[in-house]
Amino acid sequence: MRPFLCSLILLVSSFLNGQTSFFAVADAEKIRPGNLVEVSFILKNGEGEDFISPDFSNDFYILSGPNRGLSTVIQNGQMQREMSFSYTLQPKRIGKLTIRPARIKVKGKTLKSNSLTILVTSDGKQENNDQDFFIRAELAQNTIYLGQQVRLDYKIYTRKEIQNYSILQESDYGGFYAADIQRMDNMVQTTNIKGKTYYTKILRSVALYPQQTGKQRISPLVLQVGLLEEEDPQRPSSLFFNGDVNYVNVESNVLNVTVKDLPKPVPSNFNGGIGNFSAFGSIDKTSATTNETFYLTITILGDGDAKRIKSPNLNLPPSFQLYDTKSEEEERGENEGKKFSQKSFTYVIQPQKEGEFSFQPSFTYFYPLTGKYETKSLDPFLIKITAGQSNSIPLKTDTDQFVSLSAEDFKKPSIFTNILWIAGFTIPFLGIAFFYLFTYFKQQKKVKSPSEVTTDHLQQAKIFGDQGDYENSFIELSFALRTFLFHQFDIPKENFSNEQIIDKLDQSGLSNPELTQQLRQLLNRFEMVLYAPSLKKDQWKLTWEEVCNWIKQFDKG
Fold this sequence. Notes:
The chain is α+β, with helices and mostly antiparallel strands. It has 7 helices and 31 strands. The protein is elongated. 24% of the residues lie in helices and 40% in strands. Strand 5 and strand 6 (78-91) form a beta hairpin. Helix 6 (513-528) packs antiparallel against helix 7 (534-556). The chain has 5 domains: 2-120, Immunoglobulins (Immunoglobulin-like, Sandwich), CATH 2.60.40.10; 133-260, Sandwich (Immunoglobulin-like); 272-386, Sandwich (Immunoglobulin-like), CATH 2.60.40.740; 407-434, no CATH class; 450-556. Strands 11, 13, 15, 16 and 17 form a 5-stranded antiparallel β-sheet that branches.
């Protein structure tokens, strides 16, 4: 009883003095074998980071956690903030089990909680749980990096027979791009919670890719569940049956997720991938001539968001000319509860110089498990280039015989013949040249300046938005901003990226930190609405105004 009373004293004292404190509490200090205990590590009045839990593996099974919670309480006119990290534990053995202190950093200082002692004995407390069924949202990780895939499971726990269920309200994933996972391990299982046996089943699994940094909230999933009220002893033991059904609504818990930005500085050769990846490539030939092209294909396979992956670094010899690049995305299934996809890049390349050449493409990505940027180098490609043949074509007759030229063919023509020949040859070309010059100058009058094109896109975006076509409104807004940026910085379209634009703006000497930050937010928003279509309706007008104002401010700057 003593550890439990100590924890309560710490809890009361923290409310009284408003000081920062970090302590551990358990909902029971004495339990029976097989029962569960809820353990929480609580930080009062502080902003914590780098939480380190104790090692439970020797004495406990971790059934859930860490489940992170944030709350604010106003008492006696003072605001108290609380951050908690909770675990549901099941003991592995009988005896006195010790839970060692946890650690957390607050303003650079490491705080340590108290330890707890749980007595597991046959005469321990038998927990009562009046909940016959509930649904729990379980996230694989509560702290992740921007763009990192994390799995979310919606799991139902029930002691009643369930006939059916339907989703009444989806969770609001906010700053996440969400994709369903078709799990193969969602069979009905059993688990023991506080002395009671529950049937469990994963109803749904979702792969989440965060698009915004900071504290993110995932709202509950609301289900309508059909419960069989009457029990029949003759009915076989199973989870789903037919019978009288009573429909009730149930919702999952709220989840709070911390999304961290990628470490700085970001390498200049970073190709955008965030996750675990493999890379491989192929070429369609190992020898070519200087007047023919060859195809290079590089495929990136991994658990990251394929939309973020940019073209790998080819490291081509200087004498190789890159003509065209095409990319294609494709889902490749699931493995160990994660979605895998691939992105393939196909390049059209023409060598300009003969010789034997070797080049080795590479792909640089961020690996969340190590927190570092990793580079995978592909196997080197060897290709032999020979001189191309002459493009001259021998003169042949219709019978495929070479023409024989005699001395008569080289006789000097008369002056009259020369005049007729020159006139007949020149007049048609003069007419054609006049026609093309006339057409060219006529078209020149129709060519709009980049400023006019930008204005046209902004006007069209306003029209689409007013009509409720938010998809095309954002497309036009993106075109307007990009046209303006292309003109200002003379950036080739194939090399355009958000980071390059920010770098160019910083180097131009015409900007300021406020304009740079505004542009970064706009570019990130255009990228984010690809994954969160619901944002288009709410933010199209605000985005339209911000694009117009940014262009005006930049022109003034």
